[in-house]
Amino acid sequence: MSLFASVILIAWPAIVVGVFATCKPRRAILIAFVVGWLFLPHIFLKLPGLPDYGKLPATSLGTLLAVLIYDSGRLLSFRPRWPDACWIAWVLCPIASSLSNNLGLYDGLAESWAQFMSWGAPILLGRIYFGASDSLRELALSVVYGAMVYAPLALLETKIGPVLNLRLYGFQASSFMHAARYGGWRPQVFMQTGLALAVWMAAAAFIAFWFWRSGSRGRVFGLPMAVCAPTLMFMTFVCKSGSGLIVLLLGVVSYYSLKLLRTKLPMLLLLVTPALYIATRAAEVLPAETITTTVALVDADRAASLGQRLRQEELFGRHSMIRPLFGWGGWMRGWPRDEEGELIVKVIDGAWTIHISTKGVFGVTAFLATLAIGPWLLFSKVPLRQWMLEQNVAAVALATLVMLYGLDNLMNNMLQPIYELAIGGLISYALAWKPAPRGQRVVLPQVATPTPPHGEPVAV
Predict the structure, then answer these.
(1) What mean pLDDT is reported for the chain?
(2) Structure confidence by residue, pLDDT tens digits, 101-126
(3) How much is the pLDDT for 257?
(4) Domain residue spans in the chain?
(5) Which end of the chain is more exposed for a tag (fewer CB within 10 A), N or C?
């Protein structure tokens, strides 16, 4: 870890405050989160007596500080509604886990603070600033902007290897062993892994595709979506990741299922799949052999990697049932061990496996509810016939993105703060939705007075 990387990370909150001084809050938030996530070093600084300090805590802390300085009225006017109970429970559940394991209140508060920085703060900011049609459009396009900036850097790394992080910050974020793929290099740029980059590219590709095929307005660096979408689809293939390709494929299929079938069923299936998968795996109804054998028909190497993750699920799942409600807490107490006390596995990958081990069934339920509440509210409030209207395309595309994010995190554990901003925005958008009277134009979800500085609507 280089001194330069540490200095940049420590200085980032001050830089974010400076960005707020020159931009409207909504745009400043997008700049802070997109630029911070894509370009800050992926390191964690160990601070005595405090939670680890990384790029997402730095961004969340700087953004909240800037909002308090420049737009405190907006923040203080926020009032939680019943859907907020999902993510608030997710933020607070480490306290219950720590107390139930006699780890002390401080341990629980520290873990909850870290979870608030990673999840609660982005969702809260999404609730306050991204609850209207135009703001969700900006949010969706910010993903495409970030991917288009990353595209030439990713192409460069396919030739020279994933070394940009090493050359700028002086360290390698992940092993070169995972970068060699199919006779070449899998790019990583400044992400934590090449897999994270592939999923980001796939998300941007299918959002651009949705905008393009629906005829929705939007340009990125002056380029129409008819150019951005194929470019980012190509980049998803360049990233050489099965997860990225699956996210892209499901995003495109979701669009055509709405366009051609005119039914909510595929979306509802996507929404409940994570919960169904976890339930069937926990009950050992879905054998690992069935899954790996099916995948091996397409790619034997990926089947072997998947088999390791499925073994983790079984070992951690069985061990977590010793303390099922709130889990084992932190400090690797929930890791399965042999009779000599040695770790049976050295790595844990899937988010749900981590959460059921550390936070139990309560934590996993809160996690799934946090991911599902925004899309579910949107799909239940907005009539299907209006999903592809200009004012709703960004919201429906982001809801699909959040659901795919939840699906991807069954096997992986990758935070993406833009998606968490989207969760908050979708909740506010759906809560403010008012159906138009029959025969009249659609009423956009906007909130009336009081109007804060900058003329942006207040979230409800």
Answers:
(1) 84
(2) 999 999 899 999 999 999 999 999 99
(3) 87
(4) 1-70, 79-129+262-460, 147-241
(5) N
